[in-house]
Amino acid sequence: MRKAFPLLLASAALIGAGGAWAQEEDLTQLPAPSDDYQPELTSWGEPDFRGGWPIDHLNGRTPLQRPTEYGNRQLLSEDEYNERAEMVEALEQRYQNEDESGTMGIGHWAEVAPANRRTSWITSPADGQLPAFTEEGQRRSDAMRSTWVQGQPFDTWFDFDSWDRCITRGLPASMFPFMYNNGMRIFQSPGLVAIQMEMVHEVRMIPTDGSDHIPAVIGQWLGDSRGTWIDHNTLEVETTNFRPGPSATNIGTTGSPRENDTPVSTSARMVEWFHMTGPDEIIYEFTWEDPEVFTQPWSARLEWQRDEDFGIYEYACHEGNVQIRNFITASRAERAQAAAGESE
């Protein structure tokens, strides 16, 4: 079911509606999160972040990695913003076009939000690109398999990533927008923050009671997270204990690598900051480091908006659990047919 997207309510420094830009604005910098806002407190005395924080409003064609023509600029110029807005408007028109023609396709399937001024979600390195792989990272990447890889044969479940198998989209991928299933909801209880994610119906459990990480030998798809309340409006979260495997780090978000080729090692570490800068805004930032895979850490930033009306529905990934088998049998049949044709 399609829902109407509310207009973004982010600051004018990030979102433009076609008006004149301040001439002195530095397009290479994002404003630092404000510390002025004092969130309400829960009954047990922690900042109250509870509520709906879907990231569907971020699915407005902002890429994960920055196109090279923008250089080190974090923000679009006025003309560039207007161009993106026109492109998004054309994409949004697909829904109506399909209705008028009596068809149902990508216009009904993919949700597109209003344009924004960000040139990329990645903020560091300065060029907005994912860092280069290490030699080991490249080896692991080359060994990965996924339905996102064009022309790849399928023979066993090892040829599918964790998202293919409806297990997880992984981290940090799950914190980025996709074309659908962008629901996020935060729950809190004394000593615990939980983030419910619509995609793959996962819930991140983040203890804030000062407890230590679980033993390093225990790996988990979403890692082991531990949170600390800092200042008066920020939750800092450190996540370790990632489970290596065919997990998708950033597939799906506009501007991601075209194939599922970004591995995760046991050395990976993610540090996140949830800054509540107003009653309806959280500035979300993180830094990802994995020295076995990447030559340097990388960081990203997204602006969340509260939406208590967003409904999270069941994530029915593959009823009957038959798709893996179907991929394998179809792939084998296709190859057998090709081989028979070559032998004639």
UniProtKB/TrEMBL annotation:
Keyword Signal (UniProt): yes
Keywords noted in UniProt: Signal
Annotated stretches, region: Disordered: 240-264
Signal sequence region: 1-22
Organism for this UniProt entry: Aurantiacibacter gilvus
Organism domain of life: Bacteria
Protein name stated in the entry: Uncharacterized protein
